[in-house]
Amino acid sequence: IDRTGSDQEDALALLVQVPSLQAEGAVLCDAEGRLPRELAGLKAALGPAVGSERVGWVVLATPEHLYTGPVLAAGHTLSPWPGGRPLLAYEPDLVSRSALKLLEALAIFGVPVREGSRVLDLGAAPGGWSQVLAGRGALVTAVDPGVLDPRVAALSRVTAYRGTAHMFLRQATEPYDLIVDDMRLDARESARLLVQARSLLAPGGEIIATLKLPARAPGSVLRPALGLVQEAYAILGQRCLYFNRHEVTVHARCR
Question: What is the mean predicted confidence (pLDDT) over 112-132?
Fold first, then answer.
């Protein structure tokens, strides 16, 4: 839609051309996922037609045009950057692309990594997540049967455990403030391990986990996996993030 009129005219054009807005709700943002001042009037003009409980459409605004489209969301959530790549602080020499997933999750869910906090990294190799966490001052236990990148293994704040998460959890007793999980397992098996790991979390401890999903019928795996997680945790957020690939990232706190 060409933005040649007022916010009210833009809103009317949207409602006429996209009647699903009235039934499903919408999110408005600019190309960086924000709602700048000039879009506030458009949101107000849409009024009650814009719902908040379920997001069905996204309205992406540029100075000249409005673009709309259906949202394919995990758990009725929406990435805050539907218009493009997330704006993350540059961190040089990351050892793996997976580190970007954690950087995005920390930003989206607002999870602080405090100096000296104790973090358990399940499925750590080659060490991208451990590298990010140690770089923020955390003391990280990195668990994986694979080998950590030498740059991560050499970090004084990282302690490596060479073995599976199953093996580690059978003998671990140390409490952790945060548990992160990027294991290449079926989402339901990851969820079972997270339930088992619950006993290692300090009071108020949290988890960030990616639940790996099949390309076909991902919901049939995601729903039971989330149900397992909810046995031990209160889910604070679940999103298919920009850097996720056939997976959903979950943020939760121990009950």
Answer: 97
User: Would residue 43 show up in a list of annotated catalytic residues for this protein?
Assistant: no
Q: How far apart are CA 96 and CA 131, in angstroms?
A: 10
Residue in 165, 158, 206, 173 with CA at minimum distance from that of residue 189: 165
DSSP state of 1: -
Please state, in angstroms and rounded to a whole number, the distance separating the CA atoms of residues 36 and 99: 29
- Options 118, 188, 212, 239, the catalytic residue: 212
Percentage of the chain lying above the pLDDT 90 cut? 56
Question: What's the angle, vertex CA 255, arms to CA 176 and CA 101, rounded to 5?
Answer: 55
What is the distance between the alpha carbons of residues 247 and 8, in angstroms, rounded to a whole number? 39
Inform me whether the pLDDT recorded for 45 exceeds 90: no
The Cα angle at residue 145 between residues 249 and 135, in degrees rounded to 5: 55
pLDDT for 48: 60
